[in-house]
Amino acid sequence: MKVRQAAALGPLIALLVACVFFSLQSPRFLTPENFSLIAQQVMVVGVLAIGQTLVILTAGIDLSCGMLMALGSVLMTLLGSRGGMSPMAAIALGIGATTLAGTINGLLVTRVKLPPFIVTLGTMNIAFALTQIVSRSQTVTDLPPVLTVLGNTMQVGSARIAYGTVLMLALYAGVWWFLRETAAGRHVYAVGNNREAARLSGINTERVLLAVYATAGLLYGLGSLLAVARTGVGDPQAGQTENLDTVTAVVLGGTSLFGGRGVVVGSLVGALIVGVFRNGLTLMGVSSVYQILVTGVLVILAVATDQWSRKGA
Fold first, then answer.
1. Residue 164 contacts residue 151 (beta carbons within 8 Å)
2. 25-81 residue pLDDT tens
3. Residue 226 burial (CB < 10 Å; 0-12/13-18/19+)?
4. What global pTM score does this model have?
5. Angle at which helices 242-252 and 32-57 pack, to 10 degrees?
6. Is residue 313 domain-resident?
7. Measured between alpha carbons, how far is residue 165 from residues 138, 149, 241, 271 in Å?
8. How far is the CA of 258 from the CAs of 162, 191, 303, 307, 310, in angstroms?
9. Sequence-ordered strand ranges (E) for the chain
């Protein structure tokens, strides 16, 4: 029990230690403006990480999240700015496309019995190609205001908080409640712990997995909208590192890569850890190459901690 508690508290302690360290290195770090900037920087990865968490809780992995996000953002911006479609309908179709892709992932995993790694690797490449074809590798600009409204900010004390950040927090709260308080949420953990045992206990494991991948696709669509709101464009080159960024956030947040154990809020903490490190190192003038190096070290340490906690348990 002590090992599990340490593993659960580890991400939060790491975040606090990182904040203390960078506050000593730069006087600009502990300012409301900087913290609101960090929140805006992590809101896209934070929402994608919710979907990744659901998949990893079932002992799977989703490598397609970043490319699906890019495809969704290009579709909704093209349709909303050049396709003569109302912005709300364009948003709905963009989110619908990513949800459909997530559902196809789920069907391939449950009905065709393909490994999640292979399925989502293939989907990642298909989504990348479709994004380039649809956009002709050109950035989509001149967007209607509805598409970027979540990038607007509101005054909270001396800081300005983006509406997209509020949406991210609301999504975390909703998914946390679902996993903790509903039978369907507990089924997600059961499938990740032991899929065969869950099936024998009466849980429809295929339906659970299909719902998880479809929900992940829906969340990637919301991530698309947040990406458009944050950058103000539909970028066909986006999403190329988000698959690894989300896995990093989930692992740093204490969710086991072997499935069945973790708390979705931990993924938010993990995303904030990465955001704090990148922001703090930037304020210190450290090259982005070393920021990537530090992120890699953090991932290895997090996985090692997961292994250690499993053995201790």
1. yes
2. 999 998 988 999 999 999 999 999 999 999 999 999 999 999 999 999 999 999 999
3. buried
4. 0.93
5. 90
6. no
7. 28, 12, 20, 13
8. 35, 11, 10, 9, 10
9. 153-156, 159-162
Q: What is the dihedral of CA 205, 209, 210, 215, to 10 degrees?
A: 140
- Token reading at 23: 């506050």
Q: Is the pLDDT of residue 302 over 80?
A: no
The whole-number pLDDT of residue 149 equals: 95
Residue 82 maps to which CATH number? Answer: 1.10.3470
CA 51 from centroid of its chain's CA atoms? 6
Which H, E and C letters describe 92-116, residue by residue? HHHHHHHHHHHHHHHHHHHCCCCCH
Amino acid found at 195:
R
Asked if 76 and 234 touch (Cβ cutoff 8 Å), the reply is yes
| Token digits of residue 196 | 């065969």
Question: Rounded CA gap, 234 and 222, in Å?
Answer: 14
Asked if residues 106 and 212 have their Cβ atoms less than 8 Å apart, the reply is yes
The count of domains in the chain is 1
C-alpha to C-alpha distance for 145 and 107, rounded to whole angstroms: 36
* pLDDT for the residue 310: 66
Separation between Cα atoms, residue 117 and residue 278, nearest integer Å: 28
Contact at 8 Å (CB) between 290 and 281?
yes
**Which tokens in the block code for residue 204?**
């429809």
Average pLDDT on 120-142 reads 95
Q: Which two tokens stand for residue 298?
A: 């953090």
Query: Tell me, what amino acid is at 271?
Result: A
Query: Residue type for 47, please?
Result: V
Residue pair 164/226 in contact (Cβ under 8 Å)? The answer is yes
Give the pLDDT of residue 303. 78
Is residue 241 a contact partner of residue 77, using CB atoms and an 8 Å limit? no
Which token pair is 179?
A: 């996993």
Structural domain range at position 173 = 2-152+159-308
Q: Which two tokens stand for residue 83?
A: 């396709």
